[in-house]
Task: structure prediction
Amino acid sequence: MIKSSVTIALVPEAKGGPFVYWDDLPNSCAKAAELGFDGVEVFPRSAESVDKNQFQDLLSQHNLQFAAMGTGAGMVVHGLSLTNPDINIRKKATDFIKSIIDFAGPLEAPAIIGSMQGRHGDGTSKEKAIDWLSAGLNELGAYANQYKTPLLYEPLNRYETNLFNTIDDTAKYLSTLESENIKILADLFHMNIEEQCIHQAIQNSGNKIGHVHFVDSNRRAAGFGHMNHEPISHALNEIGFDQFVSAEAFPIPNSDEAAKSTINSFNKYFR
Ligand code: LER
Ligand code: MN
Result:
């Protein structure tokens, strides 16, 4: 059964970003549970910045699952990426992502590689950037495997990366890697920009999708834009997807309204 989740961002440097709840982990978990979400996706400043015992207590107290953990603070706070031309920075990027995997893995949650994929240009060819990316993903996919969790790779729209923008290109690329432990994070916002047809792209993806960022056309919460979520939910069911659709959306008009609209849309299309 497909599960619902909502994002909680704990990164002051990411303020203004598309995350539903902000800053306060205990209160955000309480609200997510109250609204009936199955899980929470956490975007931390670093693995060390989250009190693991407190977080585990919150999850069990509220009967919530840990849906996924983002690594984007490596880029936003420290300027790291897996395709940086400097080998030391690529190493730091890999170590940062490993620390997130070490936090999330034992709690059965996958880590997400979004902005940490970086881009080519500024003297780096696309081929070279993809070589570095492949080395990083193979190492990290194998690393995540020790916890029996996949690594999630998120294709982003053209304004955020020039590596892979569509689900199909990403699936073809991932099939060239040694690690078979990397799944695609399908973010409906990026897909709305890049795909010819969102539900068709999902249907064509086979069993490669491991997580969904659930959002509307304007990156507000599902229900506040003009995206047609019905064929999308059908396509996800058709491919046998049974993981999280997680609200990564702007907190507009506020976090609570965004969360409510998301769970109402989730119940309408996925229950
Ligand atoms: C960024 O646009 C995004 O969608 C995030 O999930 C990736 O860090
Ligand atoms: Mn996303």
The domain at 3-270 is CATH 3.20.20.150 (TIM Barrel). The CA atoms of residues 223 and 261 lie 6 Å apart.
